[in-house]
Amino acid sequence: MKTILLAITAVVAPCALLCAQNPVKDTVDTATNVGHAAVRHTKEAADTVAEALTPEPDARQVDVTMSEYKFDMPTELKAGKTAFVVKNVGRKKHNFEIKGAGVDRKFQKNLAPNETRVLHVVLERGTYEVTCPVDFHPQRGMKTTVTVK
Ligand SMILES: [Cu+2]
Q1: Are residues 124 and 69 both part of a single domain?
Q2: pTM
């Protein structure tokens, strides 16, 4: 790899130097950002991993399916770090919002049909409302109450 880079530099020195330098700078910037993120307090650090494609290994997994117009999910959950594995099995776009006990979380973008994404939430004891904040979906039945013990 190093030999190839040197060979290219020798042939087209000005461009090769510029092209080679930019990726290095990006890598340094990213490393700096990660460093800053790590020193933020725990609450914000938890927020950065809230949405994901796969459940975190230390989270309790809860499967949720969304369709027109209902949630299929358990209504009694345990406190602690929870990974809601939310699948849209319907024909329209849907979202999953959980509100209660000082928590209000939803996916930044609605889930398209057949899409599955994971929302991480640290649940405390209490009552939570789960709704689909799309158009009039809650009024059509896309809401449920979840109790955390
Ligand atoms: Cu919906």
Answers
A1: yes
A2: 0.68
